[in-house]
Input
Amino acid sequence: MAESPDNSAGRAASEPLPGAADVVVVGAGAIGLATAYELSLRGVDVVVVERDALGAGTSSGNAGFVVPSHVLPVTEPGMLATAVRGMLRGGGPVTVKASLRLGYLGWLARFLGNCRAAAVAAAAPVLAELGNLSAGLYKRWLGAERIECCYAPNGLLHVYGDARAFAAGRHRAEWEGRFGVPSQVMTPSQAREREPALNDAVAGAVFYPRDAGLDPGRFVSGLASVLKRRGVRLACNTAVLDARMRSGQVRALLTSRGEIRTEQVVLAAGSWTPALAAKCGSRIPIQPAKGYSVTVRMPRRALRQRMLLGEKHVAVAPMGDRLRLSGWFELGRFDRALPKARFAQVEASVRSRLHLDAELVNAERWAGFRPVTPDGLPIIGRAAAPNLAFACGHAMLGLTLAPATGRLTAQTLCGQQPDLDIGPLSPARFQ
Output
């Protein structure tokens, strides 16, 4: 993983734990750090608490896509059919874990109920607004703070290997176009012109020019360094054990390193947020979806274009002198195992569409968890406890939507009018 530009973020756990703060943000991934950044711009005294080392979570191991084009939620109707095929075949890029736990079954029923066109049509405009706000903020932040993270605004190429998948990709692009997403349908030769490393097993592609990408590990460490310079305190390797409640509000968080008194709390801990919410007297419906990535030295035939291999559900992301391959969506799986078979499947999927070296060098294997809500929309806003807010549930769009989430959350906590209507994102929608 990329290291912080300085060692200040890495030393965060060895520094004394702050005893109090105006706001405690729990979670030092892209969303938690983005929230802390926006709060710091408003002069708020902030402490960020992270259970692991900085950069150990999902924010640093993903494909690094910044994709405002992704306006269709994870509940899109095709997801259900793909998951069923994966289960029938005993494994696939999208699977749903079988379980008889009532909470999980209830969540799954709500999720499947949202896998329909009407629900997707209602969610798409919300994601479109969030994505556009985030895309603009990324350009502003990276320029103003000079965060070096291999940011490349050169679009995203969706590549399809057969006529049926290509037709589905064109249909998806038409759907997205209704929500202001521009795209360009490409022939195989046009796709190979844009990315010469593609092989002949390509039926067509769709190019999304407004998308971008970056190295997520370098972005997280760079933003953490910016926060340190702005006076934000980071407490890494610090687990939240409990909350001290009084009159229905969170008055302090009890951590593995001591107590932090606070006026307001933001839970931005991804798939771990439900357990933390319960300690604060709230409930939110999030299930983890496990994904995998492998990062290797850039092959001799260097790739220049970020790609999503359509029916394979695998992302290909150049990051400077490295190449990251990531995929899989295992809903309901919350373990840290790194099965060799999964990484072999990811690599095989990429080799089926791209020319790669016979052997990939310096492979770094990783697994993480995407926090998924039943309707595919994130949760942003205050909970029943008036001084508790959520910034979570982004599924595969956590990195994409981090700046917008940070801004909307900070505006809410500071009593400002949010740039966007966060009503559809409120945790109250699940009550």
